[in-house]
From TrEMBL:
RCC repeats lie at residues 154-205, 287-343, 344-406, 407-458, 580-640. It comes from Phytophthora nicotianae (Potato buckeye rot agent). Keywords: Repeat. It holds the Pfam family WD40_RLD. It comes from the Eukaryota. The keyword Repeat applies. Residues 151-454 form the RCC1-like domain. This is RCC1-like domain-containing protein. Coiled coil: none annotated. InterPro entries: RCC1-like_dom (IPR058923), RCC1/BLIP-II (IPR009091), Reg_chr_condens (IPR000408), Ub_ligase/GEF_domain (IPR051210).
């Protein structure tokens, strides 16, 4: 080794270079050896394959090799040799088979073999039970068609107070949104009825069957009054039985609609009722008029004015004084009744002390008995309207309103709260024309206990009015398809006339007003103040006449919402718009306004709003054809359903068809 440091460095570098060259040479030699070995192995493998192919060309060799292979089997028999019948495979428990057995079974049955073990098991089981599956699907399809037919026949919904079973749902719980009375599915209900102060209701089907419910089992025929002659012990026992069993006097449950045979047999056309414990009147398709219930003031028209238990008639009795005329419409109040004939004549009977009969008298002349002086027990024609053809009539508690064929509105009876719409708080014993609607054609009218609603439109946009065959709250009997705007007058303490704020009144009359609340309402044009419902309004600017006592509901007018059916109760009102929406306003007792989320038993909700349609809008629900309002509850019936806008249902049917094809 050199002693010079520089020489030693040169020697070290030379050794490293030599070592690197040697490593590269050894690596190259290994690569060449590996390549040669692989080539030889490939040659040997190719020779082996060629030799095996040559042996397989011999049929005997192929049979020998095939006999050595173990085929999937079941109970010692190859699966490929098993029968392809569903009866055989129904007895085989394929869920315990291995994957090879399942593959062989799927191959035998011409089923796909892709997928995991559980999928193959399900595929074989579906093939085995395919006839039963298809039969069940067909049965389900037929049931769906039957259900569609039932839904298409119309349905009935109810909401509000249910203390006395007035919703017909089979329980006493109040409902704040429309809830279907499932008992009426497939019944083809054409109309529903109730009274402004009634806790019971009626429904009439297209074939004339009449159903009734509610009233705690005592209201349909006023059974509580009819059985007043029984001992107090017997009455108490019946009350306790009704509490525990919810049974009516005829042994049927009043919480559900029950068929009233005595009414169905008379082919009822229209039913009118007013209050609980009052009386009921019906008209038949033959023009007959029947009444029953309490007749203490001659409101039954049977020429009797009995008191106590004798005043009650349980069975419908024909009003004989109307035998020679055809009655097409009837309405009842607290203690009076009004009817219209096919000739347009108006007959009234019952109590007369407030002028609600329109006969011009508060007492019957020539009668000494003080009780009999206050009533007309037989139908009497209203001579003041002889020159008019009356087409509609509605009775409130103690007032009456009628509409003539030329669209004029006449009111008479008690005027408290401005319910007559005459601009004063005074009553009238004669029919008075509501001059505030002089330039309008009135299409419909409905009276409550303290207020009145009507539908009207301006004369220049109307066509000649024809006499309808029915009255009150049915959507199919309105004059003209465009309907009209809703007008209201009377007491609005509960918001039932929609005027409960200063701003709403100002919008109606387009003037600046000073608004005062008074316990005694009145009107006086000379001092330029007048009454709207329970409000007294003083006009500070206007010097002209003040005739607009019957005011259009601003909340509906400003939105151009026209209506073609209305109904009223004591404390709330309803209107059915042309677009099919149901509007309600007034006292929201127990949710009778049908507004989801609104406070139950709220003092008042005077702004008209659409009833929540969450529970009755959509598949199987047709348009509303009839509405009715009772004391704290509301009813409506829907007509035939046509599946026009049901993408969800069509998508369901399409998916079902695809699933069946996959089987």
């Amino acid at each position: 080794m050199a002693s010079n440091p520089l020489e030693r460095v040169r020697e070290q570098r030379a050794m490293k270079l030599l070592t690197a060259l040697q490593d590269d040479l050894h690596a190259q030699m290994r690569l060449e050896k590996d390549e040669l070995g692989r080539s030889e192995e490939n040659k040997r493998a190719s020779l082996r394959r060629k030799a095996r192919i040559a042996r397989l060309s011999d049929p005997q060799e192929r049979e020998r090799i095939w006999s050595r292979e173990q085929l999937p089997s079941y109970e010692g028999v190859a699966i490929c040799s098993l029968p392809k019948t569903r009866d055989f495979w129904r007895e085989v428990e394929v869920s315990v088979w291995c994957k090879d057995q399942l593959d062989a079974a799927c191959t035998l049955l011409d089923l796909p073999i892709d997928g995991k073990k559980l999928e193959l098991v399900a595929r074989i089981q579906d093939w085995v039970h395919e006839p039963e599956i298809l039969a069940r699907l067909e049965e389900q399809r037929l049931l769906e068609l039957q259900q569609d037919a039932i839904l298409a026949s119309g349905r009935v919904f109810a909401f509000g107070s249910n203390t006395n079973g007035e919703l017909g749902l089979g329980h006493r719980r109040s409902c704040e949104i429309p809830t279907e009375i499932e008992s009426f599915r497939g019944a083809h209900v054409a109309s529903v009825y109730s009274g402004f102060d009634a806790n019971f209701a009626f429904a009439r089907t297209e074939d004339g069957l009449v159903y009734a419910w509610g009233g705690a089992g005592r209201a349909i025929f006023d059974e509580a009054s009819a059985k007043a002659s029984r001992s107090k012990i017997q009455q108490q026992e019946e009350v306790e039985q009704n509490k525990h069993h919810a049974r009516g006097g005829d042994g049927s449950c009043f919480l559900f609609p029950r068929l009233i045979s005595s009414l169905s047999s008379r082919h009822s056309k229209h039913i009118a009722c007013g209050r609980t414990g009052g009386h009921v009147a019906i008209t038949s398709d033959k023009g007959e008029c029947f009444t029953w219930g309490r007749g203490e003031y001659g409101e039954l028209g049977t020429n009797t004015c009995e008191s106590g238990a004798k005043a009650v008639t349980e069975e419908p009795t024909r009003v004989k004084m109307l035998n020679k005329v055809l009655v097409i419409a009837v309405s009842v109040g607290n203690t009076h009744t009004a009817a219209i004939t096919d000739k347009g004549r108006l007959y009234t009977w019952g109590s007369c002390w407030s002028g609600q009969l329109g006969l011009g008298e508060s007492k019957r002349a020539g009668v000494k008995d003080k009780h009999l002086q206050l009533c007309f027990p037989t139908p009497t024609i209203v001579e003041a309207l002889q020159s008019k053809r009356i087409t509609r009539v509605s009775c409130g508690a103690v007032h009456t309103a009628v509409v003539s064929a030329d669209g004029q509105l006449f009111t008479f009876g008690c005027g408290d709260g401005g319910r007559l719409g005459l601009g004063s708080n005074d009553g009238s014993f004669h029919p008075q024309h509501v001059s505030a609607l002089e330039n309008h054609v009135v299409l419909d009218v409905s009276c409550g206990s303290w207020h009145t609603l009507c539908i009207a439109r301006e004369r220049e946009e109307t066509f000649p009015v024809r006499a309808p065959r029915r009255v009150l709250v049915t959507a199919t009997n309105c004059n003209g398809s465009n309907g009209g705007f809703v007008y209201a007058f009377g007491s609005g303490l509960q918001g039932q006339v929609c005027f409960n704020t200063f701003s709403s009144l100002a919008k109606i009359f387009n003037h600046d007003f000073t608004l005062f609340m008074r316990s005694s309402v009145w009107a006086n044009r000379s001092t330029r103040h007048f009454q709207v419902g329970c409000y007294v309004v003083f006009d500070l600017e206007y010097n002209g006449p003040l005739d607009c006592v019957a005011a259009c509901l601003p909340a509906l007018r400003h939105r151009h919402i026209r209506c073609h059916a209305i109904t009223t109760s004591s404390h709330h009102s309803c209107a059915l718009a042309v677009d099919g929406n149901l509007y309600t306003w007034g006292q929201n007792a127990s949710g009778c306004l049908g507004r989801k989320g609104s406070e139950i038993d709220a003092p008042e909700l005077a702004e008209p709003a659409v009833v929540d349609r969450g529970s009755f809008r959509g598949y199987g629900v047709g348009p509303i054809v009839s509405i009715a309002a009772g004391h704290g509850f509301t009813l409506f019936a829907t007509g035939p359903w046509e599946p026009r806008e049901e993408p969800a249902k069509l998508q369901f049917q399409l998916q079902t068809k695809v699933n069946r094809q996959r089987l």
